[in-house]
Amino acid sequence: MKWFLHKLAMMFGADPRRPSADEETDAARAMKALKKTPDEVAKRKALIADEHENPQFSHKWRNLRWVSIIVINALFVISFAWDVQLVEGSMSASRFLGFHMADPNAALQVMLAFKEVMLNLVIGTVTVIALWWIVGGRAFCAWACPYHLLAEWAEAIHLFLARRGWVKDHPFHRGLRLVLWVIFMILAFATGYTVFEYINPVGIVSRALIYGPTVAIIWVIFLLGVEIFFSRRFWCRYVCPIGLTYGITGAVAPIQIKYDLEKCLHEGECRAVCLVPHVLEITKMGYAQDEVEFIGPDCTRCGLCVDVCPQNALSFAVRGLDKII
Amino acid sequence: MSKTADTPKKPRLTRRELERRRMLIRTMALGVAAVSAGLIGWYPVYKKVFDRLRPPGALDEDEFLAACIKCGQCVQVCPVEAIKLADGDEGYGLGVPYIDARAQACDFSCDAVQCVLACPTGALSHLIAKKEEVTMGFARLARPEACLAMKGLGFTGLARGDDFPGLLRYEEIDRWEPQPVASHPYELEICDLCVRECPIEGAITLEPLSIDYQDKRRVPTIHKSCVGCGTCEMICPAEPAAIVIDTELALEASA
């Protein structure tokens, strides 16, 4: 429990740390001790050498995800463009085959601004929360958010330039996201206007896709520019309150990324590709709490770590499924 | 002894501490920048810098702005596509719907205020069920000198020229399919377009300018039942329109 609370705190900006002696399970302690034996070290070195000789790449989850983002957003676009009315509206609120859907963050802001609980929004929000809770809260970011896809491409450019030493990543404090979340909620209440929506790239991109290009897209291009030249994935990592709302939504979601300490060679490939590397701190030598554990609630279930891990130490899992079967 | 020797030397920061300090300063700057950027978008809305006609059923401007979730479902159901979403540089609230009546008025082609039914938040109030209950604004003869009826003139041709893309319901042609205004030429002895095309019964009438029955001049007179849909403003052949809609916002400001 305490370890889970630590993971939750990490989502709100706390620094990652090792588990304390009483948090660490006996199995994890034994496994860590075993991994330090000369035999195991030699074995690990051999495996790593083998990996370097036979590098394997997979983009399975990434490709699936890109298809998902494109299909979801295309449904919005064609629903209006061809008037087929599958998903009417945009990312902030819609009707899917007539059922209300609402972005929890936007709905909360609107209710704070309007100071009234709107039934349709509550219905829509509950539906959306229930759906995204199953797949893991921030799965919204990786599997539906149109800005996420653009930001991934910007990130690829950033990494390309960074490898050549032309740009450098300037990290921010992750706690900023919570601070901004609170500030924008207070602003919505105090001003009676959803102030955040003016700078919300998710809404801007979604509306531009559906209703045609807008001047506001310049803001999104600016944000992507900052991500390319100044700070890797800064909007998703340090700013976006929608991501945090979904993170809270999926804090105890059924679908999780499972980490298997035994298989892990502690190379850090997963942390290098991750949008929220703090959730993968447990893959550092000595940082795991249990032999098998789920990574933190801030995880977007993007599957990049699953794709990149050469030892399959990270995998998609359904919480408690093994206990049921 | 010199003074500097007395004061304890500031401990030199390690590289790591320096990095962290820079990171925290950067973070504060980003926080301030993000909040400021949001407030920039809010300011013109708060100050009501720009005048705007909101879709039928819209709550009072302040409440409407608070309640709108900016999803555009009202845009999607409008048969004449009168509703547009404001852009970031327009100051009407990014993504908030408005109507530019001169370009495309709300002519109630949908009958039952579809946009109101589509609105998931009630920013377009669900209390409204009929077009007669709408209060978007109020028509006003702003340029009487340009009004053809005021000059006793008729009108022949296309109301807004052949390249005008606007749509209007011509019930006698098709009850359900709004027709391009550019496909519908008129031949009128006295121009009464604003009266003829007004979707609200008795909202506007032409009254004689004088008691002389040979005097053809007429005054478009707007009555209380006007809902401010803007059809008269769209159809007015004078350029710019002789008749315009004062928005609820403008009416509030002048009251």
UniProtKB/TrEMBL annotation, chain A:
InterPro entries: 4Fe4S_Fe-S-bd, 4Fe4S_Fe_S_CS, Electron_Trans/Redox, NapH_MauN. One of its GO terms (cellular component) is plasma membrane. One of its GO terms (molecular function) is 4 iron, 4 sulfur cluster binding. Keywords: 4Fe-4S, Electron transport, Iron, Iron-sulfur, Membrane, Metal-binding, Repeat, Transmembrane, Transmembrane helix, Transport. Residues 291-319 form the 4Fe-4S ferredoxin-type domain. The chain crosses the membrane at residues 64-82, 117-135, 178-196, 208-230. This is NapH/MauN family ferredoxin-type protein.
TrEMBL record, chain B:
PROSITE patterns: 4FE4S_FER_1 (PS00198), 4FE4S_FER_2 (PS51379). The chain crosses the membrane at residues 23-45. Pfam families: Fer4_7 (PF12838). InterPro entries: 4Fe4S_Fe-S-bd, 4Fe4S_Fe_S_CS, PSI_iron-sulfur_center. Keywords: 4Fe-4S, Iron, Iron-sulfur, Membrane, Metal-binding, Transmembrane, Transmembrane helix. Residues 57-88, 95-130, 218-248 form the 4Fe-4S ferredoxin-type domain. GO terms for molecular function: 4 iron, 4 sulfur cluster binding; metal ion binding. CDD domains: DMSOR_beta_like. This is 4Fe-4S dicluster domain-containing protein. It comes from Thalassobius vesicularis. The lineage of its organism: Bacteria, Pseudomonadati, Pseudomonadota, Alphaproteobacteria, Rhodobacterales.
